[in-house]
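=== RUN LOG ===
request id: a7f3
mode: sequence -> structure
chains: 1
length: 361
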Amino acid sequence: MNSFNIYKIVAGLSVICLLISATFFYRGSIEQVGPFLIAFFVTLAISFRGFTLLKGFSYTLIIFAAVTTALYYPQYFIQVNGVKLAVLITPLIQLIMFGMGTSMSIKDFAGVIKMPKGVFIGVFSHFLIMPLLGFTLAKLSGFPPEIAAGIILVGCSPNGMASNVISYLAKANLALSITITAVSTMLAPIFTPLLMKLLGGAFIKIDMLNMMWDITKMVIVPIGVGILFNKYLLKRAKWLERVMPMVSMFGIAFIIVIITAAGRSSLLNIGFMLIFLVLIHNLMGYTLGYWSGRLFKMNERDCRTMAIEVGMQNGGLASGLAKEMGKIATVGLAPAVFGPLMNITGSLLANYWHRKPIKEQ
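=== RESULT ===
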């Protein structure tokens, strides 16, 4: 039996699990849906690995399986032997940022000199559009102040490395994408606390200095160590290049599970509306980012980069900041929802643009 047939069999199992889940749901046996729904997401994720067009969604499906597990069995993800698992969030973010640093070099910042217009527009648009969108949606949401503040926190965060992968797949300007990500990340200790004070301060108390230090220790220091590691030691530890992406994916998934378990009651009350508002935030970011490039007469590849760099955020950092504020179960909810949703929309956008040829300009 070849591997393709195995993937088809697993896909069949996922359909069976979905049907069983639907049956229990229809009968009102919600508590019995959990195991079959988890199995559905896991088997579907495995089956997607056998199809070139779908394999990019496997990780997101695993996230869905993890979130479903946390919603049905939260007691296993809040604390173990009296130790709250939330304490792992900060070191996990630092590890992820270190991994980001190992894939960067000083050359990534050279784009500021080579493409100053694109970098300035990208960073400026990112820190203008997403925070204002987040503030507007938070005001309209009617959510409790701490949950609404989480939407703003996502908007005030810098780009994540996922935007670089999506830019590559979308045939955008990868060099510009990498530079915008690098610059926005390095500016985050200043702009994120400042914007949160100006916009999020209407919802919750913001300590700017504490937030500056939190971002520095979670982002700047690990990335700096990662860049130095890349320059001087990575050639002797090539295995790290293969391991770090897997570690980062596991770390992000685990962070989302911890937040979901901690904020389960809030999610069950406002989950659908929160997902809807976060989706609007993300899609409007892509749209306004693209047209900010058009406004300044940038070419199609650069406009695609603007869309991706504006619409995609570092949800992991936002989650870490929520934890440092002691509000992981409220402020941390929007970042936990934004991450998986962003990966889905980003993958779909990249797939669409990948198939759409760029006219010579």
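=== NOTES ===
The chain is about 75% helix and 0% strand.
Strands lie at 79-80, 83-84.
=== END ===
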